[in-house]
């Protein structure tokens, strides 16, 4: 499994579906008689998630582990934190999961830790993902000679995209398949949010997300992409089988508002409500284009959402970021999702600031996104204002890379 992103959605009905899908997945693993489960990164959506999400998830993990099986995990880019303990570390210490690939340095080379599964005898190691694809440096410094000397059925777990399978709309700085260490029987990949199988001397598999309750992933699911996990059988020939656990069926619709008035868009929304079979479905509706008259605030999306809820829809994902009024079109930054809009705004602003420091000039957008991610971490329960402020400041300093300067 990979990219579970537990806690990514705040909608109660989607959270319930997310939890049921997780439970179905681990129950199915027991029914199928698997020896262990691998999670190739992004188990949770943030490194310190909502404790209610942790509680409900851990209940499922503990039930699985109680059967004598283990759950092996690497950090994903969402699990990783440069300056604080991750929930992954806490669950590892508690014996709920096992973190694989803990890095150590031997003669200047990176040597990831190796874990042997007691039930199967399989050897597992790997490289965790980090924000802004910083794990690429780890692949460059990997002690490949050591890894090739390991004997047995070997699994390499990683959370990095492969350049060879990148699509035009996918934004990540990946690695080449030749950067993976050779000699492993199976490569369990994460970070790419769709199913990908690559066979180049060995089998590399990205299972895609187990559940998709947010953004572009939800759209892809609604359009028909199936979600689940892979069962892998070792031996002389590695065999893989996809287990479909898609949690919902959906409907995708678009309304091009170009040349329409705001009142005309409202009429189209009402007609769409009448036409759609919304019961027990997730709906993704995109409204885009430049209005000929009226304001975007005059489009009654609230009534549209309420009407679909009354018709029994599980959830409506309404994309209206590319809808704009003529009078403000010149200053609007469009995009599919809030994250995309944010990145475009940062790029626009980056071009207006002159910076002498090369690191800030060349990576200003990535740096700004990483800084915002740390500043968005909520105050912890029971944490004082002073402790929260100190932790946030420390995180910002770490991201900006100015710790040494301040200490000097």
Descriptive report:
The protein is globular, with a radius of gyration of 23 Å. The strands form five sheets. Strands 6-7-8-9-11-10 form a six-stranded mixed sheet, with no helix packed on it. Strands 14, 15, 16 and 17 form a four-stranded parallel sheet that branches. The protein has a three-stranded parallel sheet with strand order 1-2-3, with helices on one face. It has helices at 12-32, 51-65, 87-93, 136-140, 144-149, 215-222, 262-275, 301-310, 338-350, 358-362, 364-375, 385-400, 403-407, and strands spanning 36-39, 70-73, 98-99, 103-106, 109-112, 115-116, 123-127, 154-158, 186-189, 196-199, 203-206, 228-233, 239-244, 250-256, 282-291, 315-319, 323-325. The chain has 13 helices and 17 strands.
Give a brief rundown of this model:
With 408 residues, this protein is α/β, with parallel strands linked by helices. The protein is 34% helix and 19% strand.
């Amino acid at each position: 499994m990979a990219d579970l992103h537990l806690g990514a959605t705040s909608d109660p009905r989607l959270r319930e579906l997310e939890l049921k899908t997780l439970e179905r997945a681990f129950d199915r693993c027991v029914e199928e008689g698997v020896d262990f489960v691998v999670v190739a990164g992004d188990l949770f959506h943030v490194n310190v998630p909502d404790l209610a999400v942790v509680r409900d998830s851990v209940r499922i993990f503990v039930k699985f582990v109680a059967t004598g099986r283990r759950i092996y995990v690497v950090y994903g880019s969402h699990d990783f934190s440069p300056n604080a303990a991750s929930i992954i570390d806490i669950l590892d210490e508690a014996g709920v999961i096992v973190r694989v690939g803990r890095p150590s340095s031997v003669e200047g080379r990176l040597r990831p830790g190796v874990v042997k599964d007691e039930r199967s005898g399989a050897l597992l190691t790997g490289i965790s993902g980090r924000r802004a694809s910083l794990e690429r440096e780890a692949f460059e410094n990997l002690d490949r000679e050591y890894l090739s000397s390991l004997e047995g059925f070997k699994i390499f777990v990683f959370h990095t995209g492969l350049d060879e399978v990148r699509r035009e709309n996918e934004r990540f700085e990946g690695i080449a398949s030749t950067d993976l260490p050779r000699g492993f029987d199976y490569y369990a990949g994460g970070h790419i949010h769709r199913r990908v199988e690559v066979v180049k001397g060995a089998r590399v598999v990205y299972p895609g997300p187990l559940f998709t309750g947010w953004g572009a992933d939800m759209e892809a699911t609604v359009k028909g992409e199936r979600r689940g996990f892979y069962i892998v059988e070792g031996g002389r020939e590695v065999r893989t089988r996809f287990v479909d656990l898609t949690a919902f069926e959906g409907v995708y619709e678009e309304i091009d508002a170009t040349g329409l008035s705001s009142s005309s868009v409202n009429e189209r929304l009402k007609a769409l409500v009448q036409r759609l079979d919304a019961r027990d479905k997730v709906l993704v509706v995109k409204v885009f284009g430049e209005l000929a008259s009226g304001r975007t605030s005059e489009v009654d999306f609230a009534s549209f959402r309420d009407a679909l809820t009354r018709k029994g829809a599980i959830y409506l994902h309404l994309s209206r970021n590319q809808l704009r009024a003529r009078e403000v079109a010149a200053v609007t930054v469009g995009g599919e999702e809030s994250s995309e809009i944010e990145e475009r705004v940062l790029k626009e602003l980056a071009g207006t600031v002159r910076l002498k420091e090369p690191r800030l000039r060349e990576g200003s957008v990535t740096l700004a996104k990483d800084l915002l991610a740390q500043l968005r971490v909520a105050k912890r329960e029971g944490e004082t204002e002073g402790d929260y402020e100190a932790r946030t400041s420390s995180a910002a300093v770490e991201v900006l890379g100015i710790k040494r300067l301040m200490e000097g």
